[in-house]
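If your schedule permits, I should be very grateful for your opinion on a structural question. I would ask you to consider whether the tokens describe a fold that such a sequence might reasonably adopt. Thank you for your consideration; the sequence and its tokens are set out here.
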Amino acid sequence: MNCDNFLPALETGGLVRRIQARRHAARCPRCAAVCEALTAAKRQLAAVEPLSPRARKLWELSIEGEPALCPARRKMLLPAAVGLATAACILLIVVEMAVRKQTDSPRLNSEIVRSDSPPPDNTVVSEIYPAEGLSQLAAAVDRLDVELQTLRLKAERADARQQVALTLDRFGQW
């Protein structure tokens, strides 16, 4: 350790470098004076005088004007809301089509209407009643809701893991 490396080693070095810098300061009067001056400057900067009532009021007003930070859960609600809105729109479209079909043509009562020509490409035509279709759609929406909740939970966990990893990266080197 020499005098040129003393200050960087004392402030930004690892455990071993700081110990070496302290040992060097114990033997070198010039570096000991620099260390003492640095310690006094740190103490002076750390001493905080209390805010005046006017300054405290300004501080509080500035904090009130800022929007609150969004927690991770709120970020995950947007995709869930979009998914549910999409499912609701699809359900409304299907119901509207079923209602129009029912009002435009009379109900066939399980009769199959045959035409003289066979359907192209062996296409099978089947009649779907709105009640059955709606119950199937409701079951599908329920399954999607459960799946959405599971995905939301997984996303929250992944976000928490990412936050922990970032925190460890930032503060783990102390």
Remarks:
- The chain has two domains: 3-49, 72-104+128-171.
- The chain has a mean pLDDT of 79.
- Residues 72-104+128-171 form one domain.
- The chain is about 75% helix and 0% strand.
